[in-house]
Amino acid sequence: MRERACTQCKTLFYGSVCPTCKSTSFSEDFSGLLIILDPEKSQIARKVGIKTPGRYALKVR
Q1: CB of 4 within 8 A of CB of 14?
Q2: Containing domain of residue 31, as a range?
Q3: What is the CATH number of the domain that holds 8?
Q4: What's the number of domains the chain is made of?
Q5: pTM of the predicted protein model
């Protein structure tokens, strides 16, 4: 099974439902990788609007 990116929150996951926002809208066509360990201390997470630790795609097509 290929990794998928949620089209709503850009979380990277395996399966058919996004574990972060519970959306079923996803794409296997994405680019870039952003790993957020501590969203409260991360300036990038604040700028992008990420509030949950995890792996995120930078661009989802």
Answers
A1: yes
A2: 4-60
A3: 2.20.28.90
A4: 1
A5: 0.90
Distance CA 12, CA 18 (A): 8
The tokens describing 60, both together, are 């989802």
H runs (alpha helix) in 1-61: 43-48
Pairing of strands 34-36, 30-31: unpaired
Q: How far apart are CA 55 and CA 11, in angstroms?
A: 6
Question: Model confidence over 5-31: pLDDT tens digits?
Answer: 999 999 999 999 999 999 999 999 999
Beta strands in 1-61 (DSSP E): 4-6, 12-13, 26-27, 30-31, 34-36, 54-56, 59-60
